[in-house]
């Protein structure tokens, strides 16, 4: 059972470079999310997609763009990477946005370093 | 003020000890509450929901105090395998994560 798969797991970028983090889920979930996790800050929501065809900003969207390609896939793009975007990025999915059960299923994370 | 606050720890306890973590939240309209567990360099996973009446799952007990706006997690008879970071999560319409409390259980 793959669950939520995100790639790449590790990436080093130079300031100003662009890259896309890919995420796919095989649980037929409607909602998908991108979080970043920094020491002392907890998980912060970057963007989410409540359902296929919709995307919305979260708490820290600046410097990022997203695409909900289809029900399975939700990608995160950094157009011009900055050192402040050095972080661990997690993709997650849930059955729906109401979060009745509170259960988010996370990918294994992508560690991004921007030099 | 952060929406969800936790003491980051670390809490260092011997095997067999009982340990409790608290978490406070600022939004009185919060709908539901959860504890997640995150092992080192791994993804977070749902540990348990927190119900108004309190709930237990084996050695783990979660409690909610809406009047004082805090939730707690009690772990009895700690095991080495309980070593992890415990994230308090509050549903305000979106899930808001605390920064986590790190537990180290020592032999």
Commentary on this structure:
The complex is a heterodimer of chains A (about 120) and B (about 110). Helices cover about 0% and strands about 50% of the residues of chain A. Chain A has strands spanning about 5, 10-15, 20-25, 30-40, 40-50, 55, 65-70, 75-80, 85-95, 105, 110-115. In chain A, the strands form two sheets. In chain A, strands 2, 4, 5, 6, 9, 10 and 11 form a seven-stranded mixed beta sheet that branches. In chain A, strands 1-3-8-7 form a four-stranded antiparallel beta sheet, with no helix packed on it. The termini of chain A are far apart. Chain B has strands spanning about 5, 10-15, 20-25, 30-40, 45-50, 55, 60-65, 70-75, 85-90, 95, 100-105. In chain B, a hairpin with a 3-residue loop joins strand 9 (about 85-90) and strand 10 (about 95). The radius of gyration of chain B is 13 Å and the shape is globular. The mean pLDDT of chain B is about 95. At the A-B interface, strand 5 of A face strand 4, strand 5 and strand 9 of B.
What's the structural blueprint in terms of helices and strands?
The complex is a heterodimer of chains A (115) and B (107).
Chain A: E1 4-7, E2 10-13, E3 19-25, E4 31-38, E5 42-49, E6 56-57, E7 64-68, E8 74-78, E9 87-94, E10 105-106, E11 110-114
Parallel strand pairs in A: 2-11
Antiparallel strand pairs in A: 1-3, 3-8, 4-5, 4-9, 5-6, 7-8, 9-10, 9-11
Chain B: E1 4-6, E2 11-14, E3 19-25, E4 32-38, E5 44-50, E6 55-57, E7 60-65, E8 70-75, E9 84-91, E10 95-97, E11 101-106
Parallel strand pairs in B: 2-11
Antiparallel strand pairs in B: 1-3, 3-8, 4-5, 4-9, 6-7, 7-8, 9-10, 9-11
Salient structural properties:
heterodimer, A: 115 residues, mainly beta, seven-stranded mixed sheet, four-stranded antiparallel sheet, 50% strand, globular, B: 107 residues, six-stranded mixed sheet, 56% strand
Give the overall shape of chain A.
globular
Query: Strand-residue fraction of chain B?
Result: over 45%
Distance between the termini of chain B: 37 Å
Q: From N to C, what is the helix and strand string of chain B?
A: EEEEEEEEEEE
Work out the radius of gyration of chain A: 13 Å
Structural class of chain A: mainly beta
Mean pLDDT of chain A comes to 93
Sheet with most strands of chain B: 6 strands, mixed
The class by helix and strand makeup of chain B works out as mainly beta
Helix content of chain B: under 10%
Helix content of chain A: under 10%
Q: How many β-strands of chain A, per DSSP?
A: 11
- For the CA atoms, what is the radius of gyration of chain B? 13 Å
Question: What's the tally of helices of chain B?
Answer: 0
Most extensive interface, residues per chain?
Answer: A-B, 20 and 21 residues
End-to-end separation of chain A: 35 Å
């Amino acid at each position: 059972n793959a669950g939520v798969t995100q790639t790449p797991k590790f990436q080093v970028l130079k300031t100003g470079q662009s890259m896309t983090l890919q995420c796919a889920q095989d649980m037929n979930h409607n909602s998908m999310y991108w979080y970043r996790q920094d020491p002392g800050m907890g998980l912060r929501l970057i963007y989410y997609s409540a359902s296929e065809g919709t995307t919305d900003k979260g708490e820290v969207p600046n410097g990022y763009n997203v695409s909900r390609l289809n029900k399975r896939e939700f990608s995160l793009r950094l157009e011009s990477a900055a050192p402040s975007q050095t972080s661990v990025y997690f993709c997650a999915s849930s059955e729906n946005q109401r979060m009745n059960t509170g259960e988010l299923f996370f990918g294994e994370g992508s560690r991004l370093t921007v030099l | 003020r952060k929406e969800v606050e936790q003491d980051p720890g670390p809490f260092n306890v011997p095997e067999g000890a009982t340990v409790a973590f608290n978490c406070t939240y600022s939004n009185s309209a919060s709908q539901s509450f959860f504890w997640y567990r995150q092992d080192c360099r791994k993804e977070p996973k749902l540990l348990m929901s927190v119900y108004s009446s309190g709930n237990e799952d084996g050695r783990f007990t979660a409690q909610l105090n809406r009047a004082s706006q805090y939730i707690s997690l009690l772990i009895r008879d700690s095991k080495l395998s309980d070593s992890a970071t415990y994230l308090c999560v509050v549903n305000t319409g979106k899930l808001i994560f605390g920064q986590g409390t790190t537990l180290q259980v020592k032999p």
